[in-house]
Each structure stands twice: as C-alpha cells, then as structure tokens.
Amino acid sequence: TSGRTPLMAxxxxxxxxxxxxxxxxxxxxxxxxxGKHDFGAVEVAVLPPFTDIRSxxxxxxxxxxxxxxxxxxxxxxxxxxxxxxxxxxxxAKLGCTYVIVGHSECREYLHEGDEAxxxxxxxxxxxxxxxxxxxxxxxxxxxxxxQVEFVLAQVEAGLAGLPAEQAKSIVVAYxxxxxxxxxxxxxxxxxxxxxAAIRTKLAELYSGDLADxxxxxxxxxxxxxxxAAIMAQEDVDGALVGGASLDPVEFASICRYxx
Length: 259
Ligand code: PEP
Hints:
By secondary structure, this protein is of the alpha/beta class. The chain has two domains: 14-71 and 225-232 and 243-259, no CATH class; 73-191 and 205-218, Alpha-Beta Barrel (TIM Barrel). It is 44% helix and 14% strand. It has helices spanning 18-34, 50-62, 88-93, 104-109, 114-126, 139-143, 147-158, 164-167, 188-205, 208-213, 227-231, 248-255, and strands at 7-11, 43-47, 68-71, 98-101, 130-135, 171-174, 215-219, 238-241. It has an eight-stranded parallel barrel, surrounded by five helices. Helix 1 links the parallel strand 1 and strand 2. Helix 1 (18-34) crosses helix 2 (50-62). The longest helix has 18 residues, at 188-205. The radius of gyration is 17 Å and the shape is globular. Bound molecules: phosphoenolpyruvate.
C-alpha cells in the first residue's frame, strides 16, 4: 500500500433499518475507539441504505465520530423525473464522502452497463463525492483465465472521458463476483494479480504518479481471519466488505488488521 492510506468500507447492502443502523454505528465506533484505532492510519467508512443515511449522519456529526459514510449507488442525473432514483446532490447534502458505483449487484439486477457506470462516476464528481468504482469478473470468465482482460475493459469503459483531476481521487474496488457473499475468498495472489493490473492500466490511461496514489480495494468474502493476508499484497489498499460489515465487532477487527 506504499504511501496510500488504507480504506475499509462496509457495504451493508439492503440490511438494517435506520434504528439498527444507529446501533451498529455506535457499537462500531465504540469498539474501534476502545482499541485506540487510528482513523488517520486506516480509514473506516460505512455505506448504509439511503433511508439510514440521515440518522447515521446525525450520529457522526453529533458525536464527532471519525467514521466516514456514503451511499451504495446514485442516479446519473442530478434532478428531475426519475422516480425512485437518488441524486448525488442529496447524498452530498447528507455529508456523504463516498458512493459505490457499478457494484456487481447493480450491474446484474438493475442492468447497469458500462455506459451507465461511466455516467454515474461523472455524476458522483459533479457533487464532490468520491466513487468506489467496482469491477470484477464472473466465474466463467475466471475459469477461462480471462479475468485480467475482462476487468481492464470494465476499468477503461468506466473511466472514459474522466479527467485526471477527478480520476486521481477515485477508489477502485476489485470484486470477483464468484467471491461475493459466497464465503469463497480469492487467494491473496489472485487479488494482487488483478489489482496490480488495474494500477498498470491507470498508469497507461493517466500517469504513473496518478496510478501510485489511487487506492484499489479487494472485495469478496473478506473476514477478520483472512484480511491480513490480502492486505499484505502490494497493490491492495483496503477492502470493500459486505456480510462481515454487519457485525460491528467483526468489522472492527477487519479495520484493525494490523494488530
Ligand atoms: C460486496 O458486496 O461488496 C461484498 C464484498 O460482499 P461480501 O463481503 O459479503 O462478499
């Protein structure tokens, strides 16, 4: 992770109502503080459902917590006749730092293609949100050994037309679909292979300096007992954590992987 501040981001998916969210954030913060967590050394973020964000924001602001928060997706539009969608402007007003873009579940269930992902990345930057841009191959692609080409094509399509001033702050999350929610974690070497290839691609698209500064996360069945080996890889700068982020003690242990 040379020089890059690791980020541990909890993607709650469609779990926890706003009351449960408040409990989880309090317990997470308490557990981290109890362990004297250095939030400057390893950044911690929660990504709750939209309906929880106001409550989470109130708690974080009111108690001056060092946790960051964000959304799980956003509309590519800023406002208008888009029933059911949520603008990045609204997320920004709720103090969000991050927003996930292109999660495989949105690509699959909401039929988000690379063009929509690209438009959403641009929308995130219009509202000063930092995107956590997700890419990753399915099982068939992995079995065919084509994971690097597949993921790099997603990276290139997602970033099309994005200027360096924006791309330099992006967070990329490599999430092999076959490892999401399956308990089947990629080996540290599998994660490193693709994360390193993403960094090389960023250097080609922009510059070596930009690529060196971008954080690349791994996601897919990260738990307290496998995170350290993954974080030991040179090009892995954090984790996007689904299931294990719903347990505040487990997630706090993930954030404290250096202990
Ligand atoms: C995710 O959905 O981003 C994820 C990585 O999920 P899990 O940790 O449950 O595999």
